[in-house]
Structures are given as structure tokens and as C-alpha cells.
Amino acid sequence: MEEKKIRRIAVLTSGGDAPGMNAVVRAVVRTACANGIEVLGINHGYSGLLNNDFRKLTARSVDGLLQRGGTMLYTARCQEMMTEEGQQRAANNCRYLGIDGLICCGGDGTYRGALALARRGVPCIGIPGTIDNDIGCTEYTIGFDTASNTAIQCIDKLRDTMQSHERISVVEVMGRHAGHLALNVGCAVGAAAILVPEHEANFENDVIERVRQGRINQRNHHIIIVAEGYSMSTQEVADQVQEQTGMDTRVTILGHVQRGGAPTVRDRVIATQMGNYAVLALMEGKEKRIVAMQDGKIVDIDIEEALEMKKPLDEALYEAEQSISI
Ligand code: F6P
After folding, report:
1. Terminal CA-to-CA distance of the chain, rounded, Å?
2. pLDDT for residue 2 is more than 60
3. Which of 73, 78, 128, 196 is most buried, most CB within 10 Å of its CB?
4. What average pLDDT does the structure give for the chain?
């Protein structure tokens, strides 16, 4: 593809923050600067674009950012960007600022905003940043590894107290409508049961009988992982388990603690690769793409196609876990 002269780009983070978003911003800024491109950081996601809330970023202004959780650009879920009027105003603002391309890091909602802008003539490249790992076109989303590690560190601590009291810990993990995070975490902590939205559990066989089997095998405590999108609430799961096994249960909702903290090596490296790739894609004249990981490689995919793609649960891992966690 022919290289297009890009003079100024902008970068924003949108939706739920994810550890590694700062590493994306750093990589975008440093790659752009190395190629003589000016960078504007848009604050508060698309809201900032609508309100002309931005700052100039330089190679130096992103120093010390790689290891920081959250996003220095702030983030938001912007309702106005879902309206035609908002989308047109955002595109106009890009034009007034002379932005030749916009890089947007976030999840599904972020790409819908990017698609709307691309259709209005603003070249946009999306980068997958969400702890949920629920984006169909990519094997990996930035933040997933850090969130998984944070969750298992918390659950390892819970295990100590559950063991001491011979209790069952019922832990709710984030993930919105998907069970990728819950499955990953459940597998890593050796959970007795993992309840995910993609599978309706047979409560008697998949939960109660597993706890009973554990007790028969002298296990005095158990961890049950519930994805936040599961059909039963975590409290309902705990109440039923307590009623049917006679064991004391405690509910822990990990919540937003999973979104914070310094990114892991994996998140820092992938964020760096994807941020770098996105700038090069704009320089190559790409206008409506999402950076993705496929077969372990960084590639780019048309946003419209990407939005149509579904992300199935890792069924092999789910099945393996079903047979191991007894
Ligand atoms: O998409 C990331 C995520 O943390 C989901 O796992 C969760 O359902 C949601 O965001 C929570 O959103 P908020 O921070 O707006 O409460």
C-alpha cells in the first residue's frame, strides 16, 4: 500500500480502562515521534473529542508510563458518540484540528465510534484494550493477563482463610457477558467449579457433586468461580451451595480491583507491539482497521468485519477443566 503523508495523529482510550493502555499510548507517541508525526492525546475518550479536550504529547511526556495501570488519558463511556449528531461533531473536530488519523484503544463500543468516524472520512485504527478478552477478531486483548493475575493473587489469599475455617469461597470475576476471564482465573486457581455465561451448569452435577467429591477426598475448602454475566447471581450460587452441602460459604466480588495495577510483561509487550503497529498502519494509508492478534501474530482487520466476529469460549480449556477440577 502507498505511504500517505501523515503529519498529526490523535490517540484516545475509551470504555473500561485496562492495564496496558498507558503502554499503548507510549508506543503510539514514541513511534509517531520517531517518524516526525505530531500527537495529540484526547482526554476522556470520545467525550474529549466532542469537547476539544486534548493535550499535545511528546516522546518525553510519556516517560515512566509503561509500568502504570489505568490510563493517563482518562476514559469514558460516551453516550453522545452513539448519536449521528455526536459522530458528525467528533469528525468535524478532527478536521478542525487537522488530525490525519485517530488511534482508539478500547473494546466493542470504541470500535463502533471509530467506524462512525472512518465513515465520515477520519482514518481510524482500533486497538483491543479490555480485561474481558471478548473481542471476536483477536485472540488477545490488552489487560486480560494483568486482570487474571490480579484475580488469582486475591483468590490465593482467600484460600488461606477458607482453608482455616473449612469454608467455600464463591468468587465473582468480571468479564461482562463473557466467561473468558472467569475460565482463565478458575483454571489457574484450581476451582472446584467455574460458572460462565456460555454454559448453563447442571447445578447438582457441576457444582454440588464436585464439592461432595472433594470432601470425600478430604478437601476441607473449595473455590467456586462465577462470571459476573452468569445466569444466577453469585449470592444465589453461594446460598444454594450452603443449603445443599451444609458447608459455610462466603461471597467475594473482586470488582474493579481486577482493572487496576501495573501491567504484566505480556500486557506491556503486546501493548507496545500493537501501539507501534497502529501508527505504521496509518502511515501505510490504512483507514478503518482494528489491530488484532491471530495465530500469535499482530495483524489488522476491517472494523466492520471485526464487529461481526464472535469470540467463542475456549471449549478445549473448559472441557479440560471439567475433568481436572474434581
Ligand atoms: O469491560 C470491562 C469491565 O470491567 C467489565 O468486565 C465490567 O462488566 C464492566 O467493565 C464494568 O464497567 P464499569 O467500570 O463502567 O462499572
Report:
1. 54
2. no
3. 128
4. 96
What is the chain's Cα-based Rg? 22
State mean pLDDT over 4-22: 95
Q: What is the pLDDT of residues 205-214, one digit of tens each?
A: 999 999 999 9
Which residue(s) pair with 292 in the sheet?
Answer: 299
Q: From CA 188, how far away is CA 212, in angstroms rounded?
A: 21
Reply yes or no on whether the pLDDT at 4 is more than 80: no
Question: Which ligand 1 atom minimizes the distance to the CA of 229?
Answer: 8
Which of 71, 77, 132 for a ligand 1 pocket mutation test, highest count of atoms within 8 Å of Cβ? 132
Q: What is the pLDDT of residue 325?
A: 78
Q: Ligand 1: residues whose CB is within 6 Å?
A: 16, 107, 130-132, 174-176, 228, 259
Ligand 1 atom index nearest CA of 176: 8
**Sign (positive or negative) of CA dihedral 118, 8, 273, 297:** positive
pLDDT digits (tens, 9 = 90+) for 233-248: 999 999 999 999 999 9
Which residues belong to the active site?
Answer: 132
* Rounded-to-integer distance, Cα 242 and Cα 45, Å: 44
Angstrom distance (rounded) from CA 172 to CA 223:
11
